[in-house]
Design brief:
mainly alpha
């Protein structure tokens, strides 16, 4: 029940607090515009270039899922593979996106364990595993990231939840 705008602004705030450039912060705020805009008001790369600049448009394109019509697992696998090609700016935007989304997931998990995963198109295990795989891929590409420590801590928390879900850890 949180307004949509909270997530992109949260991503921008994470980037700003990490010392990212203005272009990266703006790209973080705009990171979901291409894939989440509706057909009647579709945002394009060209529109982002005209309104902002080519660097911002390219950053947004780089973190955008290319085909939302593919099954969830295929889209997420493609996104995971794409991380290997990211620029440092793209890695920062993706890091902030994961930090914001997965931190919200963990917060909600601690409050409403059984309801939190119903809003996804995949199982709990697959969602948690995808976040963890993405974090590991980002850290392999960018060990010096200002967000590396936060990502590592998040990875540990996601692992803890996975272990709880599997019954391998008492709470």
């Amino acid at each position: 029940d949180i307004p949509y705008i909270v997530h992109p602004l949260g991503v921008g705030l994470i980037l700003a607090l990490s010392g990212a450039s203005e272009e990266i912060v703006i790209a973080g705020i705009l990171h979901d515009t291409l894939e989440d805009s509706i057909a009647e008001k579709k945002i394009t790369k060209e529109m982002l270039e005209a309104e902002f600049n080519e660097e911002i448009a390219n950053l947004v394109v780089s973190v955008t899922e290319q085909n939302k019509e593919l099954p969830w697992e295929v889209r997420k696998q493609e996104a995971l593979e794409h991380i290997k090609e990211f620029s440092q700016g793209s890695l920062l935007v993706k890091s902030a996106d994961i930090l914001n989304n997965a931190s919200e997931l963990l917060e909600d998990y601690n409050e409403i364990v059984n309801e939190i995963f119903f809003r996804f198109n995949a199982s709990r295990e697959k969602i948690l595993q995808h976040y963890r795989q993405s974090i590991i891929a980002i850290l392999e590409q960018c060990k010096e990231s200002p967000l590396a420590s936060d990502l590592s801590k998040l990875n540990v928390e996601l692992y803890r939840i996975q272990a709880l879900e599997r019954g391998n850890l008492s709470y």
